[in-house]
Structure formats: structure tokens, C-alpha cells
UniProtKB/TrEMBL annotation:
This is Diphthamide biosynthesis protein 4. The keyword Iron applies. It comes from Scheffersomyces spartinae. Gene3D superfamilies: DnaJ domain, DPH Zinc finger. Keywords: Iron, Metal-binding. Signal peptide: none annotated. It comes from the Eukaryota. SUPFAM superfamilies: Chaperone J-domain, CSL zinc finger.
């Protein structure tokens, strides 16, 4: 009888449960609020990235095809005269660059490339050859 009355469920019972529930609600609310803030922050970052994104995804850049580049297959380098400063080979990329290209949302790939002389950015579109995968 004595033990039973000291049992937390019996003695504190209701008030404990209530404070626990309120505690849970507060916690859930703060997580929810935190999640909203995080979503807004993510969206903000995305918008910011889009505005600055010209170097990352090539939006707003002049577009060139890899066909316009001269390939040096021995070195594995593609080069082109810069369209702005006309520096010969100012635009240069290698196989590693091509492997790091991103999809253009259609069926090709693209990457942003910077002139080594005047630091102009351009967008280069290309396709990875299927024949490299077929042996
Ligand atoms: Zn240039």
C-alpha cells in the first residue's frame, strides 16, 4: 500500500504527464519551426546560387560546342581561341574537365570554362561518345 502510493504513476501521475506532453509539444514545435527556417534558408541559398550560378551551371553564358575546339588527342586537350581576347588556346580543357561536366537537361553535357588570359567564362556543350564504352 505504501509502495503503491509512492509509485510515480500514482503520486505524480497527471501533472507529470501534462508537463511531459507540453515538453514534447514544445520540442515538436521547435523542430517544425527549425525545419521551416531551414527550408527558407535552403531556398534562399538556391536563389542566391542561381543568381551567382553562371560559373557553376553556365546560365547566361555564351554557348559553344566542343566541335569548335581543336582536339589534341595525344595530350587529351581541347583548345580554342578565346572569343573575347582572341588569345590562342585561351580556352582549354582536358578529359578530366569533360568527365566533370553536368547534364544540360537534354541529352548532352555542359561545363563552364574560363579563359586563361582574360578570365571570360563560356559554356561548352558536348556529348560523351558511346563508342568509348563499347569495347
Ligand atoms: Zn580571353
Amino acid at each position: 500500500m505504501q509502495l503503491l502510493s509512492l509509485h510515480p504513476d500514482k503520486t505524480l501521475g497527471r501533472s507529470t504527464n501534462e508537463s511531459t506532453i507540453i515538453g514534447h509539444l514544445k520540442e515538436a514545435y521547435s523542430i517544425l519551426l527549425d525545419q521551416q527556417l531551414r527550408n527558407e534558408y535552403d531556398r534562399h541559398l538556391l536563389e542566391k546560387a542561381k543568381k551567382q550560378g553562371m560559373n557553376a551551371d553556365g546560365v547566361g553564358l555564351d554557348q559553344y560546342s566542343l566541335d569548335e575546339f581543336t582536339a589534341d588527342e595525344i595530350k587529351g586537350i581541347w583548345s580554342m581561341a578565346c572569343p573575347r581576347c582572341e588569345s590562342e588556346g585561351g580556352m582549354e580543357l582536358n578529359e578530366g574537365d569533360l568527365e566533370n561536366g553536368t547534364t544540360d537537361g537534354e541529352f548532352g553535357l555542359q561545363l563552364a570554362l574560363q579563359c586563361q588570359s582574360c578570365s571570360l567564362w563560356i559554356k561548352v556543350k558536348y556529348y560523351m561518345g558511346d563508342d568509348e564504352e563499347e569495347e
